[in-house]
Amino acid sequence: MIIPLSETAFFDRGNFTGNVYVAKDDGKGFNALLVDCLEGHYKTKLKDATRVYLVLQGEGTFTINGETKEAQVHDLFLVSDGDTYEYAGAMKLF
Asked: Which partner for 88 in 16, 40, 53, 78 could form a disulfide, CB atoms 3.0-4.6 Å apart?
């Protein structure tokens, strides 16, 4: 299966935009997004999900459960169910 960028759903949340390759509602058991972090993602608590973020371009920070780490290209961040997280910087994430 291939999902070209041209067949994804674009979204705009102000501080970050992106494209949804696989949506939660698709019934695959996961979702996949390409995210352009322009400034940051607001602080939120993850519920009934696990998220993995791979930094493709740029740099910034990820704060997970109050612990802040620098984010650079090829770093992978795992956010588990129940974690509180936010990220900031100018980054492209998958």
From this structure: 40
